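Input.
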Amino acid sequence: MRIENGDLLIENGEWRVEIYNVNGGLVVHNVSDNADGASITINIAHLPAGEYIVKLGNRVAKVMKK
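Output.
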């Protein structure tokens, strides 16, 4: 998972992605039909710079948007 040109790129093809701000507010919810496990791209250009919590299915990661 990485941020590139205002997009969050997820290489493992997780079908359900939720992004929360550090206060716990849900800011992005994406559910795709990505059954083949290909990479997906989520536009996050509208989010202000800062730290976010990304939930990928059952996994959680922190990302920093500059």
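DSSP finds no helices and seven strands in the chain.
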